[in-house]
Design goal:
heterodimer, A: 109 residues, mainly beta, six-stranded mixed β-sheet, three-stranded antiparallel β-sheet, 9 strands, 47% strand, globular, B: 120 residues, seven-stranded mixed β-sheet, four-stranded antiparallel β-sheet
Amino acid sequence: QSALTQPASVSGSPGQSVTISCTGFRSDVGFYSYVSWYQQYAAKAPTLIIYEFSKRPSGVSNRFSGSQSGNTASLTISGLQAEDEADYYCSSYTNTVWLFGGGTKLTVL
Amino acid sequence: EVQLVQSGAEVRKSGEPLKISCKASGYMFTSHWIGWVRQMPGKDLEYIGMIYPTDSDTKYSPASRGQVTISVDKSISTAWLQWSSLKASDTAMYYCARRGCDGQTCYDFWGQGTLVTVSS
């Protein structure tokens, strides 16, 4: 099964906002997908930052937000900080099937 | 505090067997699926499969079915990922993760990873 599609890279300056898109999850009749987002620093394990499209786990900065529009899920990071430089992965869960996106490298200029 | 602690890095040769572990603590182990995720060097995350500790119900991704075996011992809150015969292409970092969130729709806690290196 194909992975989800994300842009390979995005960049922004400190204080700006960036948005990362994720497409390819199923949303047709009979299938409902739940999209989550993960942040991964180099040589570290991923950490959850958004689940069920827009919910934020406790302890995650409110600078991270998620949304859905049709077949596209989006992660927005506002007020960019140097510490946000990392890889970001979307994931979908649909009827016991898990998929991950190809990952997006965020560079803070 | 929820923790998933994985076994240490392994170096093996092609054809050898291997079993890596993931020990959970800080929550009711039988209430959450444990998933396994592979990350080849410099590459993205790939879902391998997951297991439900209560009854050992196991689900594999199409690509992983027949290539690996996932097992669990709920008495010691530990899950395993094993290979009967490693290939060089199995070289990767392997993560275990707890399936959680409101409807168990995400992986909310992750192990630190186990690096597996297979030489041909």
